[in-house]
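User: quick one, fold this
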Amino acid sequence: MRFSLRKVLLGLIALVVVGWFFSGLGLQNAGSDANPTNAQQGSNATGSATLVVDFGPESGLEPIIRKVENFGGTGWELFAAAGVSVEGTAEFPTGFICRIADYPERAKQDCLDTPKFAEGSWAYFVTNSKLGSGWLLSGAGAATHRPECGGYEGWLWVGPGKSSGQQLPSVEPDLKPCEE
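Assistant:
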């Protein structure tokens, strides 16, 4: 079972790396000083998108839920639009999320390289009214994925030695057809 989990994890990492490469090779990390009321400008605006950050039951932290109106960027850019800080690894600064809203603490993860299974990591989920009623583990990296109008982008902290395969964000999406 662990062998196939490793293959899946390596495949997901490869997708993230490819997404990072084709996304322009240099999106900036979102700062915590971003203003969530600022809408994304441009003709590619798709309507609203909701960012959900679930720190997991063992963290003792409440999930972050931020809806951003008139958003047309990528899942990575949604962090800045929602005013939530995000940090990639030194190895993949915009291709692999290591820390969201300063979690996990720097003492537990240095973000110099891709976190190992024994350290825990963030799992990326998406959903929208076209996909159905629940969360789906994303097959694309946040730097290349563009949320659908009314869609939800979910991040779940999966603790050390645990698999994301049987865990979902604790926040239930309130999916409604989008009015663009």
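User: anything notable?
Assistant: The chain is about 15% helix and 20% strand.
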